[in-house]
């Protein structure tokens, strides 16, 4: 995990917002990593504290083998991730869309960490639940090869609904914005540079 703090010109060190960047790409290097770095640079330039979880560098089993029927011991990296989520006021989640949704690594991270008693808690009647991560906000940075209009109007944006409503929203985290950088496959270097500059500007507005 990377924990860097840079003070802005008009802010005292430690005066910024507590932000946790979660990078969900399994690749060692990707546009997602570059966008996350650019966003973090923008946020740190304004004095915010940005910590990072790079899932491809963490050691954990992404499979919830028994659902909620049996407990599955959390690896040290996942216990630390839960501590960082509790620490954070704001989350930023960066990942590519594969087959209409998030990569298995990121989905497995949510399966293993957003557990009953941590992210939510069912009440006795089983129909109402407490959102245990309420009070936090999130930004989502997504890359994909599909044109955004096609993903929304033809596919129905299934991955966007999943992250905003059935994961973050279910746990009480309010998605402030979701930004799509696409289509990636045919993007020129000039376009990629524009995306990185935009991501840095978004971070500076955190």
Spatial sequence of strands, sheet with the most strands: 1-3-2-4-7-8
Rounded Rg: 17 Å
Helix and strand element order = EEHEHEHEEEHHEH
Residue stretches low in confidence (pLDDT < 50, at least 5 long) are 1-13
Q: Work out the helix count.
A: 6
**Largest sheet geometry:** 6 strands, mixed
Name the overall outline: globular
Proportion of residues in β-strands: 15-25%
The averaged pLDDT comes out at: 92
N-end to C-end Cα span: 21 Å
Domain Flavodoxin-like fold: 17-191
InterPro entries: Flavodoxin_fold, Flavoprotein-like_sf, NAD(P)H_dehydrogenase_qn
Pfam families: Flavodoxin_2
EC number: 1.-.-.-, 1.6.99.-
Describe this structure in words.
Its EC number is 1.-.-.-, 1.6.99.-. Residues 17-191 form the Flavodoxin-like fold domain. The chain contains six helices and eight strands, in the order ββαβαβαβββααβα. It has helices at 31-44, 76-87, 104-113, 148-153, 158-171, 189-204, and strands at residues 2-5, 18-23, 49-54, 90-96, 120-122, 129-131, 137-143, 174-181. Strands 1-3-2-4-7-8 form a six-stranded mixed beta sheet, with helices on both faces. The protein has a two-stranded antiparallel ribbon with strand order 5-6. A hairpin with a 6-residue loop joins strand 5 (120-122) and strand 6. Helix 1 runs parallel beside helix 6. It starts with a strand and ends with a helix. 31% of the residues are buried.
């Amino acid at each position: 995990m990377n924990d860097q703090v840079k003070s802005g010109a008009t802010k005292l060190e430690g005066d910024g917002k507590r932000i946790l960047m979660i990078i969900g790409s399994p690749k060692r290097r990707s546009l997602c990593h570059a966008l996350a770095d650019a966003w973090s640079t923008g946020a740190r330039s304004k004095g915010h504290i940005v910590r990072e979880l790079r899932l491809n560098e963490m050691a954990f089993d992404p499979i919830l083998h028994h659902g909620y029927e049996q407990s599955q011991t959390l690896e040290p990296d996942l216990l630390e991730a839960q501590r960082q989520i509790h620490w954070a006021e704001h989350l930023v989640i960066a990942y590519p869309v594969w087959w209409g949704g998030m990569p298995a690594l990121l989905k497995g991270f949510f399966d293993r960490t957003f557990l009953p008693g941590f992210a939510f808690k069912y009440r006795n009647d089983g129909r109402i639940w407490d959102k245990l991560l309420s009070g936090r906000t999130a930004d989502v940075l997504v890359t994909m090869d599909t044109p955004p209009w096609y993903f929304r109007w033809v596919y129905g944006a299934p991955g966007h609904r999943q992250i905003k409503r059935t994961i973050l929203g279910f746990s009480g985290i309010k998605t402030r914005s979701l930004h799509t950088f696409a289509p990636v496959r045919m993007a020129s270097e000039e376009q990629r540079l524009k995306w990185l500059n935009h991501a840095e500007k978004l971070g500076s507005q955190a």
